[in-house]
Each structure stands twice: as structure tokens, then as C-alpha cells.
Design brief:
heterodimer; A: 190 residues; mainly alpha; Rna Polymerase Sigma Factor, Chain: A; Arc Repressor Mutant, subunit A; B: 185 residues; elongated
């Protein structure tokens, strides 16, 4: 039996086909949860927000016009929910003593261009585990973090990242570049 | 001339996103630019670490995850109600207090009552407004006072005069009488 495409499932969901929704959730739950977990850095929030994304998918499936890939459309919903979630909780994180150590908005800070790097960095030195990457990731802006994670974890191109974040391809490239430059800077200063 | 580093194109270059022309241009730049080569290598290492990090995310019990999702969707008559209710609650959780129409109406009524009470208090014991009769009497007394003040130099010497009859008939007095009166012994 041929598997239905995401786009076909989405059309059936728009017609309130519960089975199609089950298949869609089963197909995307792991990726959605992992991406939300990577962006939010919290399992409970990732669970909650990714479930919200599926509920939103069920509600607005009729609005998917098929001009972009379903995955791009769905991850736009998910990433927007993640960014909204972080914005709502930002004021609280700023009050937390640990959060204040890293500064506020990385987008507002000047980033060192590659030419300012001091000394050679070998691949071995830069091999990080998630335990080291996590605190650094949390210091990126939501857009930078989403852009970097969509590229590395979901294999999205710059154009697709731009579609998810509703920005141009060049802006998506800037988000990725600044995100990675910021990660390098933070990891170097550890 | 300063070199233009293709910073934002390094990751797309590594991921094979660039067109053939752009790929050739960035590749040529990397051959001659140690800084960009180093930057590309460092970026490549971080990208692969991040990709590997996906495997370290602990996954939930998917059956439980889907059951919870169904519960959330059943919580309202329609999924939209679930979503709107949830978001409304969440926004309210961090929103500052907002005064709605009922609260505003109560506040306006309270201010009005206070203003009326203040006016009535002043009318009862504070600044008393004189009545019409009292006002006329005050005006009459004032005009009398003004007349006395106009002849103040006469009033000042009233005690030196014997009586008003003498003053009134002063021209009828004889010289001797007048001298006696003026130079009392």
C-alpha cells in the first residue's frame, strides 16, 4: 500500500479525517518534539508546545494551500509557537540569576566576524557534546537558534528556513551565520 | 583593497546549497583566505555536533504523548476552543491587570460620590454663603462707614465740641461768646 503524502493527509485532516490526523501525528511527532526540545531546552515545554502545534495543524489544515512543502508550513507553526513561548517566558528568565550571566539579546550584541578569531581552532577542540552546546544554544536569539537547528537537525535549506521564519533567504543565512559565530565565541570563552 | 569575506555563504557552501558559480567563487576565496578556511572548518564541526545532538534528546512515551494530545483536543467542543482557551489562559498568566468596563464604571461612580460629598461638606460647615437680607445690611453698614471716614477729621475732634447745637448755630454766637468759647479760662 502506498503511503499518503503529507499534503494528501493535510487535505484529509481539513475534512476532519481523524485517521489522517493520527497518521500525521505519528509521522511527525518525533521530529516536532526534538526540534521543540532543541529550541526550548525543556522537555515539558517541548511536549506541550509540540502538542499545541498538532492541535493548530488540525484546526488550520484547510488553510494549507500547497504552495510550499507541508513540512515547511508545519514547522513554521511549530517554530512560531516555540518563539512565542520563549518571548512570554523571557521576563522570568531575566529575573533568574543564572540567565543574567549571559546577557540579554544576542541579536543586539556585536558579533565577532571570522577575521577576528584569535588563534587556530582545531576540529577536535570544537567537538562538543550536547551538554556543552545546550547552555550556548540558549544564549542565541530565538530566530538564530531556530535557524541553526532547522539547518542541522531537519536539513532545511536557507530558502526553507526563510519560509519558516518568514524572512528572505539571505536573512536566513545571516541568522545561521550569526548563530554559529555566537556559538563559537561562547564555547571558546568557556 | 580589503577582501570581502563570504561569511554568510560559508555554511551554504558546506551544505552544497550554492549555485555552481557561487560555489566556485567561494571555493576560490577559501583557497586564498586562511581566516575563512578556519571559520568554515569550525562551523562545520559545530554543525555536525548539533546534528549529532539530536540523538541525545530523550524522547517521551509516544503512546502517552498521543493520549495527552487527544485529551487536550477533547477538552473543548472544538479544537479551536482548546487552543483559544489555552492561549487566553497563558496570556492572562503574564498580563498585567487590565481594568475592564465594570471596574471603570465603579471607579467613576466612586469619584462622583466623593466629589458630591466634598461639596456638601463645604456647604454645611465651611464657606457659608450669606443670605440676601444679610447682604443688604452689610452693604448699608459699609456705606455708613465710608461716610464717617470721609469726615474723619471732624469726627476726630468731636470730644472737643460741646454739642451739636453749638456747632449748628455757631454763626449766631456773638464775638464775646465766640472768644469765650474758643479761649476757655
Amino acid at each position: 500500500m502506498v503511503e499518503s503524502s503529507d499534503e494528501e493527509l493535510c487535505r484529509r485532516i481539513a475534512a476532519r479525517d481523524a485517521d489522517a490526523f493520527e497518521v500525521m501525528v505519528d509521522r511527525h511527532q518525533a521530529r516536532a518534539y526534538r526540534l521543540a526540545s532543541s529550541i526550548l531546552g525543556n522537555e515539558a515545554d517541548a511536549r506541550d508546545v509540540s502538542q499545541d502545534a498538532f492541535i493548530r495543524l488540525y484546526e488550520s489544515a484547510g488553510r494549507f494551500d500547497g504552495r510550499s512543502r507541508f513540512s515547511t508550513w508545519f514547522y513554521r507553526i511549530l517554530v512560531n509557537l516555540c518563539i512565542d513561548h520563549q518571548r512570554r517566558n523571557r521576563w522570568w528568565r531575566r529575573l533568574a540569576p543564572l540567565a543574567s550571566a549571559g546577557g540579554d539579546d544576542p541579536d543586539e550584541r556585536a558579533l565577532d566576524p571570522p577575521s577576528d578569531e584569535a588563534g587556530p581552532e582545531s576540529k577536535a577542540m570544537l567537538t562538543q557534546s550536547i551538554s556543552r552546546l545546550r547552555p550556548a544554544l540558549e544564549k542565541l536569539s530565538p530566530q538564530q537558534r531556530a535557524a541553526v537547528l532547522l539547518q542541522t537537525q531537519e536539513g532545511f535549506t536557507s530558502r526553507e528556513i526563510g519560509e519558516v521564519l518568514k524572512c528572505s533567504e539571505n536573512t536566513a543565512r545571516v541568522h545561521v551565520h550569526r548563530g554559529i559565530a555566537q556559538l563559537r565565541k561562547l564555547l571558546r570563552n568557556e | 583593497m580589503a577582501a570581502i569575506h563570504p561569511e554568510t555563504e560559508l555554511v551554504p557552501y558546506l551544505r552544497g546549497e550554492l549555485s555552481a558559480d557561487d560555489r566556485a567563487r567561494v571555493g576560490a576565496h577559501l583557497e586564498g583566505c586562511a581566516q575563512c578556511r578556519e571559520s568554515a572548518e569550525a562551523s562545520s564541526a559545530i554543525l555536525s555536533d548539533l546534528a549529532r545532538a539530536v540523538d541525545e534528546v530523550r524522547e517521551p512515551d509516544w503512546a502517552e504523548y498521543r493520549a495527552e494530545l487527544k485529551r487536550k483536543m477533547r477538552a473543548g467542543q472544538a479544537p479551536s476552543a482548546v487552543i483559544r482557551g489555552r492561549w487566553r489562559w497563558r496570556r492572562a498568566d503574564v498580563r498585567l491587570p487590565v481594568f475592564g468596563w465594570p471596574s471603570m464604571a465603579i471607579s467613576v461612580a466612586a469619584v462622583a460620590v466623593l466629589a458630591i460629598a466634598l461639596v456638601m461638606h463645604r456647604g454645611a460647615g465651611g464657606l457659608q454663603t450669606p443670605g440676601v437680607d444679610q447682604l443688604e445690611l452689610q452693604q448699608e453698614l459699609s456705606s455708613t462707614d465710608v461716610g464717617l471716614l470721609a469726615n474723619y477729621h471732624v469726627v476726630e475732634h468731636l470730644d472737643l465740641l460741646e454739642n451739636y447745637d453749638v456747632i449748628e448755630h455757631l454763626d449766631e454766637l456773638g464775638l464775646g461768646d465766640r472768644q469765650n468759647h474758643e479761649t476757655p479760662s
